[in-house]
Structures are given as C-alpha cells and as structure tokens.
Amino acid sequence: MKRRLLLAGLVLLTACTPKTYQRVPGGGLPGYFRYQPNQPPKISAHRGGGDYAGFPENCLESFRFLAKRMPVIIECDISTTKDSVLVMLHDDTLDRTTTGEGPVNATTWAECQTFRLKDNRGTLTNFRMPTLDEVLAWGRGKVVFTLDVKRSVPFERVVAAVRNANAADYAAVITYNATDALRLHRLAPELVISVNIRNRADYDRLRDGGIPDAKMVAFIGTREADPDLYRFLHERGIACILGTLGNLDRQAAARGDSVYRAFVRNGADVLSTDRPLEAHQVLFPKK
C-alpha cells in the first residue's frame, strides 16, 4: 500500500512539474552551452527578468514567474552584506530596488531581511531579498544560472557557494576581462565561464591562458558581432551571447519583436534580454 502511495505521489509530482523546467545532467553544463549547428536559441533573463510589473529584479518570485512560462537562463547579480552574506542585488546601494537605504556592504543581513523589494517601476511588493544559497538551492532542476559577481565579492566565496550547492551543473559565472576569467578558471576549472570576446585577440588571450573552448561561453557585447567573429567562435564550438538589453530591446519594442529572429539568424545563440517573454514568444510561437 505504501509503495502504491509513493508511486502515486511521484506521478502527481511529475504531472505538476512545468515542462519548461530545465534539468541539466551531471557534468552537462559545457554541453548545454556548446554551440551546435541549427540548435534552438536560448533566452537569458537579464537581472532575472525584473522589467515585468510586480516582479522585482533578482528575486526568487521573479525567477519562478519566468521558469513556469519558458525554459530560461537566469542572469542574476551577487553582492555582499556588511556581515559577508552573499545576497542577490545589482546596485551597490539598496535605494532603487528595496525599501532600505545606503550601501549594501554597510548593512547587515538581519537588516536586509526587513526590507521589501520594489519592481522597476518603483511599486512596492511583499518580496524579500534572497541569498545566493537560497537561489542555488531553488534553481536545481528548474533553470540555468549565469552569476554576475559584483566587484565587492571575492570569486573564492562564489566558487565555495557553487560547490557547496553542487551547482556547477547549472550555474556558470560571468567575468568581464581576461584577468578575472583566468583567475576564476584557476580557482575552479570545473566551471563554465561567460567571457567577453569582441575579437580574435580576446579569444587568444583566454585560450593561451588555459581556458578550454568547452568551458567558455562568449559574451560578444550589446551590439551584433561581425559575421566573421560568429563564424570563428562557432567553429570552436563556442556559443555566443548577444546582450539585447538596452538599445536592441528598445529596437524590438519599437519595430516589432521579429527582430529577435534576425539576431539569431545572424549568429546569436543566447539572447540576454530584459524582455524574455516577448523574445520567447516570437522565437517559439505556439502551434
């Protein structure tokens, strides 16, 4: 009888799990990001999709909102409190996105827990700031993360958090220059790293420093790359992230969301966008 109840519970749990959730197998993140010809594009929600009314950036409620509607990469930002708790916050200060004030690194975690989050229109919600540990625990079997590490946060602490959560299968780490990328790779060679590549010299610096192609996903900037750069990286199996956040998203809103299809046709494999639902709708229309 107990066995039947257990099986029934598992069937019910499976039936209730959104089909949009992404489950990356053990050791599978390099393959998830690796470029393959004719592969479907991927969509990354910049700051976790904070541009939707009632859903602040960098919070679990916004991540859940998107993950139940589309397969999504969650790009999110890590800051640190005065007492060294890693929390999800983009700005150095609390004022714009929370009811708190002043620098986050001058504020304790206990104080942060009393603040409520605001969406990007300034509307107050009942949501609270999550920790990195909470986010990584929630994300397993649901989303892929790209973790944006703010200047005040040591890479060593992020690596420790990812390892403690056994999250290397679904969490890549973002870097902005070759020095940081090489240092991070030496610290954690198991991790996939988002690296800035705007030209072949950028790639050579990273590859000569010892980062394998399989551990790179290339952020090519917030404007479309030259076709030769897309071709060069694709020949090496390196997927390209195009940041449509900002000007390109505004272009899509003004001219029509079909421009997202053009970005993909031209070579982008991942769109990092403030409009993930709109991009998903045009790239994966319902039949």
Order of helices and strands: HHEHEEHHEHEHEHEHEHHEH
CATH superfamily of the largest domain: Phosphatidylinositol (PI) phosphodiesterase
The quaternary organization reads as single chain
How much of the sequence lies in strands comes to 5-15%
The side-by-side strand order for the widest beta sheet comes to: 1-2-4-5-6-7-8-9
User: Low-confidence stretches at least 5 residues in length (pLDDT < 50)?
Assistant: 5-14
Would you write up a description of this structure?
With 287 residues, the protein is α/β, with parallel strands linked by helices. The protein has 2 domains: 94 residues, TIM Barrel; 113 residues, Alpha-Beta Barrel (TIM Barrel). 36% of the residues lie in helices and 14% in strands. It is built from 12 helices and 9 strands. The protein is globular and about 50 Å long. The N and C termini lie far apart (42 Å). The relative contact order is 0.14.
Concise summary:
The protein has 287 residues and is an alpha/beta fold. The chain has helices spanning 2-16, 29-33, 60-67, 109-112, 132-139, 155-164, 178-187, 200-208, 227-235, 247-255, 259-265, 276-283; strands at 42-45, 73-80, 86-88, 144-149, 171-174, 193-196, 216-219, 240-243, 270-273. The longest helix has 15 residues, at 2-16.
